[in-house]
Write a structure and sequence with these properties.
Layout: E1 11-15, E2 27-30, H1 33-43, E3 52-56, E4 59-62, H2 64-71
Antiparallel strand pairs: 1-2, 1-3, 3-4
Amino acid sequence: MSASIDWSAPAELYSSIATFKTRNSRYKRFPSAAEAVRFAIEDLPAASLRALAIESGDNRHEGEAIRALYMAEDYPLQRPER
């Protein structure tokens, strides 16, 4: 799956519900897809994942596909120790 994503490409995170800090915010731009994935998994409530989509280039990843990107072997950012 992760072969279809350029981790360093700019990415946009969309939500169909108000999951970000402000009530009306449903869009956030990131300098890289890796940072967008990290934010979605590490900073937002787990329950909001099903309402999220990340777009980077021509690729769109939704819900559990975002978690799969985060867990991919080639994910470039360091994950926190558990």
